[in-house]
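Hi all, long-time lurker, first post. I run a small reading group and we've been trying to get comfortable going from sequence to structure in the token notation. Rather than ask abstract questions, I figured I'd post a concrete chain and ask someone more experienced to write out its structure so we can walk through it together at our next meeting. Sequence below, copied exactly:
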Amino acid sequence: MDQGRHATLLEGLQRLAGRVAAEAGVELVELVLRGSSRRRTLRVDIDRAGPRGVDLGDCKRVSELLGAALEEKEDLIDGSYVLEVSSPGIDRPIRSPEEIRRNTG
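-- Answer (accepted) --
Happy to help. Here is the structure in token form:
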């Protein structure tokens, strides 16, 4: 896949995953698509502001909602893929001033 098509695919996935995460009451932290067109892995990290963060139930809900949304948009990802939804963990990279404020302390 050429870089232009890959960038367009990632933008579409980011919009879709961001919308699904917001519907589930969490935020999209990171989205990574790896692998070849025969076998790809779409990894989605989610989080929630506040001390509680996300739990297994949140990850399951986003996985179900995003999986269903991706099935509706069959043309978005060609071929098979594995969807992974998880918390970014304690070693997550901090990418914005808002994340610095939220994770200080």
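A couple of things your group might point at:
The mean pLDDT is 85.
Strands lie at 27-36, 39-47, 81-86.
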